[in-house]
Amino acid sequence: MASVDERIKELQDKIKALKVAKQDASKEVEEMKALKAQQSKDKKDGPAGFQLKVPKGTIDQKPAAALLRKKIFATLEGIFAKHGGELIDTPVFELKEILAGKYGEDSKLIYDLQDQGGELCSLRYDLTVPFARYLAMNGITSMKRYHIAKVYRRDQPVMSKGRMREFYQCDFDIAGTYDPMVPDAEILYILIEALTALDVGEFTIKLNHRKILDGIFELAGVPADKTRAISSAVDKLDKLPWADVKKEMTVEKGLDEKVADRIGQYVGLKGKGREVLATLQGDKELNTIASAKEGLADIALLFDYLEHSFGVLDKISFDMSLARGLDYYTGIIYEAIVEGSAPPSATAAATPAAAAAPAKGKKAAKSATVNEDGVDESTVGVGSIAAGGRYDNLVNMFAEAAGSKRDKVPCVGVSIGVERVYAILEQRRRAEAAKPREKETDVFILSLGKEGLLPERMKLARKLWEAGIKAEYQYKAKPKAERQWAQAADDQVRFVAILAPAELEKGVVRIKEQGVVREAGQDNGEEVSLDNVVEYLKARLG
Amino acid sequence: MASVDERIKELQDKIKALKVAKQDASKEVEEMKALKAQQSKDKKDGPAGFQLKVPKGTIDQKPAAALLRKKIFATLEGIFAKHGGELIDTPVFELKEILAGKYGEDSKLIYDLQDQGGELCSLRYDLTVPFARYLAMNGITSMKRYHIAKVYRRDQPVMSKGRMREFYQCDFDIAGTYDPMVPDAEILYILIEALTALDVGEFTIKLNHRKILDGIFELAGVPADKTRAISSAVDKLDKLPWADVKKEMTVEKGLDEKVADRIGQYVGLKGKGREVLATLQGDKELNTIASAKEGLADIALLFDYLEHSFGVLDKISFDMSLARGLDYYTGIIYEAIVEGSAPPSATAAATPAAAAAPAKGKKAAKSATVNEDGVDESTVGVGSIAAGGRYDNLVNMFAEAAGSKRDKVPCVGVSIGVERVYAILEQRRRAEAAKPREKETDVFILSLGKEGLLPERMKLARKLWEAGIKAEYQYKAKPKAERQWAQAADDQVRFVAILAPAELEKGVVRIKEQGVVREAGQDNGEEVSLDNVVEYLKARLG
């Protein structure tokens, strides 16, 4: 095996060199692929040379999980519809150029379809860019839309925390020109409503504003060409201590130390209520910067709506360290964090004042929690469970790039990380004793006696189905009684309808309710006429 | 433009030749791509060189359409759950080798993901192969599962008939070893239930059995290596007359003419009721072939269940010309056809007896119905609206290929073509006058007077949302009255809640019901106390 590994490395190096020289390396590539194929064959493959698995970073959803997700979606759709949301769906892949250039450094995580002779396409990375494309393409200037669908990112997966390569997003966005901060307030209200209804536990919404951040950078003296890079560094303050972030800014990204320190005076500010806002509004120097002043005015108006009209201000933490990676945000930005789901190092020093204290958890020993991608799962919290912001220029940027001049279509929206919600609810459910149901059957039709009564069971099933009752029976002419009872118990079916020759002659069926303790002598269930059995069951099922 | 076209053709021919000579043609490919890019730029692209569109063969689902599809899914899920179906979901792409070799000639229609350094993957082509992989992977021997999800085929699209490259399938399959034909009967019952509930109009289910077809081929003397090809020819009898099919068998596929004629004596047999079955059961020669005899016994048993237990035999047409393309079917096969949805040439001669008559419609003039792919849409019916069959070997074939020996897991299932159902329902809806609703809002909160009353509207909205009532208001501090009334009307919102200064002082809001004709003097709606408004609206909404 060692010589095969060595040969592979040899070939990889040779191929790199060849590519640099722009020469065709197909023979070497073929040989390497053949060797790799042989290698995995030797390891664990079957005769046909493949393994029975799903692609890395993806999962099948088994029935209990699929049913739980369906309930999560139903809860969210109900909330979205309450607020006048309209449902849309878009194709799972877009033209490659639609997605190009929208995701900054994350663009390398996009899945491309192979060039098979037609248009070049890529799997969608989120639901926001498709929405902007949809608005621009259809000339729509105002819309409240929701979209629940899977997106694709070639990331390092951490399956236990719900970080996968294929995962659901649930987005609600409001597009259109309205009075300031009103739709922004409603989006935040919807997010709070959703996380409350999903029962994810205590949560906080970190909130900031791009214009305030831009103002702080301007005040501190950050060169324009470094804004994006410094923003990205600030955003790491939820995982790294200030000392590390400052080092990244100065050493890696070449920022002047004085400028970094000035930034440091602001990005430590965070808290619920209006204190941070008051501090910033009282900062004379900051208020000489126009964008900071506008941003602060927006926040003040937003807080009024959230407090006096919606009564939800207590969920908001105004947090100067929240920067978010994406370039297209132009106004408020926010992230919802669930208690106990944040990564451990988020509790480490994130302010300059505490910078002296050494970072905890940084040198945790590699343990059983390190997965096959080298990621230590114990240091990964679920992290943010939802996020979003205002993005005013994305739609008309699309329209212009496609050669059609349009007015701005301002947008604000939120994306709820369903997989992370699911990971939390699933962890909680495992702690409970009850096994989750995988199907919804209400009546199991069972036969006693050696004739099996298959045609009669099928006829009764048909009668129940026609009345909308969920019913099953075993696909056996002469099923064993114990096996039928076992199936009804395993599937946690509430009612058993017992057919037996004697009762059938009388035109009755016996209905027994499972899992109900009765007094002695009352265990035999109730005899119900076949003419009435539908009414009877409908009444009992409620 | 002509010289660019010519140069492109030149380059294409040259590239073909080069490929044959196995020489690297990258320079020519680059030049051709650059020319093509210039060509489309010249035509219609914007400055960034791209068009705002979705990929060929895909569509966005706009709100009215998305809502209608959601209703179709809800109807189907309700039926599947009634029969004890368990929901699963699988990744949108599978390992390339999982899909390889499963789809015969259609394998060229599979979308591949680009090789980006990891596992090679392809977009799923149907939901059956993923299900078989799921069963084999998890060692499951019995399961009733449903799955509603999109699949991907690089076909020639005919959008108006619902033939797209990305489209939903709704599958229900029963896996497991049971007494013969019982699950088969229930699957057909479910299919009939579903098409009835979806209200697609009159439909017929064409039914056949692979063992009977195999028996006919054996009796006629079809060589084993030609079975697949001859099967595929027989399957075209729904679109081509017998003369053409026979020609394909003999001329193209090299079958002896006597053998083709013998086949021709059977494949014209079709009809409802038990006549065809009786004819075949009385055919002494056919019954000397073991597989034909087994197949006929299966059909006889199936018909008994369908007629006496489920009462649905009248929907079935036993049709010897149904062959289906897929290799993995081992028992019954079926296809549901909606009246008026079959392609026009299906009415042409499909039996040897009528073979003398010339084929109709074969030389229809190219007309306005020819789309940009050269497909004459008027000759394309919606075709089959659902299809399926029994496939007993697929699961253990997977298990064995992956090196794990397993017992057979027999399966039978049906796949409902939701897009085709949608195309039919949508065509019907367009004939109706009513514009479909795109949102579900029940109450529109409107303000009169110059103050705008935005905080009060937001407070009332919150009150209604907390009670689960779907409510909206305009995101404007001082909205114009006419525009608010217009929005309530456009969105077909049933109730308008009117806030005005005088009423607010009294602590009341006026509720008006839209679209209801009242007697003169009764147009002003009802005054409701703000303390009671939730109860009042809940009662009115029912």
From TrEMBL, chains A, B:
Presence of the UniProt keyword Ligase in the record: yes
Protein name: histidine--tRNA ligase
Family annotation (InterPro entries): aa-tRNA-synth_II, aa-tRNA-synth_II/BPL/LPL, Anticodon-bd, Anticodon-bd_dom_sf, HisRS-like_core, HisRS/HisZ
Annotated region (Disordered), positions in chain: 31-50
Recorded family membership: Belongs to the class-II aminoacyl-tRNA synthetase family.
Reaction(s) this enzyme catalyzes, per UniProt: tRNA(His) + L-histidine + ATP = L-histidyl-tRNA(His) + AMP + diphosphate + H(+)
Extent of Basic and acidic residues compositional bias: 31-46
Residue stretches making up the Aminoacyl-transfer RNA synthetases class-II family profile domain: 57-455
Keyword Ligase attached: yes
EC number(s) stated in the UniProt entry for this protein: 6.1.1.21
Superkingdom of origin organism: Eukaryota
Enzyme class: ligase
SUPFAM superfamilies: Class II aaRS ABD-related, Class II aaRS and biotin synthetases
Keywords in alphabetical order: Aminoacyl-tRNA synthetase, Ligase, Nucleotide-binding
GO molecular function: histidine-tRNA ligase activity
Originating species: Vanrija albida
